[in-house]
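Lab manual, section 2.4: Encoding a predicted structure.

Procedure: take the sequence of the chain (341 residues), apply the prediction step described in section 2.3, and record the output as structure tokens. A sample record is shown.
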Amino acid sequence: MTTLLEQRYRTVLRLLPASYRAEREEEMVETYLESVPEELHDLVRPAWGEVTSIAGLALRTRLDGTPTIPRTGLRLGPLFRQFALFGVLLNAASALSGHALFLAWLGGAPAPDQERVASSFRGSGIWDSFPVQVALWVAPLAWAGAYVALVRDRRRAALVFAALAALPALAGAARQLAWMPGAVATYALATAAAALLTVAALACGYHADAPPTPLPPVPPGLALMGLSVVAGAADVLHPGAIDALWPGGIPFLAVGALALAGRARASAGGPAVPLALAALGALALAERGFLLGELGRYQVPGPLITDALVLTGALAVLVALLLATGARALFRDRALSRAGG
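Recorded output:
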């Protein structure tokens, strides 16, 4: 006779893929029931530790075991890892170049400008206090720490660094929602969502059983420094642009174009890289869409609007090409799998 505890265990085990349950469910249920005295089987529930363990196992098996989307054969594990890797890389390049350019400007700025910057760190209240403002200014540099930890396969350290680096975006979105609700707050929310999704992809994709970190095709340090230089050069050569940095600017266009060029030469490779970049590009498009909507409300000079529109159009074309490349690779892999089976 089925006890209440057995029913509850089987309910929790439904988190696992059907193919995994078909092989292991009976064994797992028997093991769990043996750990509880029989007279208590209708009185107790599965322990929270057991539930979280099963949930973690379900996440790992669904990401890297059976295809997450069976009809396509797509596994989300590689997609999440590439999304996290490129998201962390692009954010790190943006933070390094932006902070370096700011410090270089500040060193040669007139005294009134230097005083204005200094006063922004001396506000009243906890939010505007000197320690909080310094922490929020320094925190984005943790993206670089997350990238270094990730390429060295230090997964927990990478997650901690990325979570710290995302805090300023979250704090900025909360402040905009409280003080300036509307399009500006929506743009801040989109930026915070992009940072949060990068952290979430890092947490889910790089679980304990995940394969080693997929590194860029160029040396990791060179990739970071190269993108930082590209971001900085775009800002220096065209300082009037609305946004030349991540997430919607020249560095992403460079990464996407290089990825497409590499695929064109090799004519092989899985769908994870182009689809992950397409997802990152879609987030950037959403942010720029909110930004353009906000610019339309103010008397922004025409050339700046044109710059923003051109960059948004180039980004949309690149996302479409990446999606097409990823879909083609996905269908090719599916056909090869069927032929092999």
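Check your result against the sample. Residues 96 and 102 are 10 Å apart (CA to CA).
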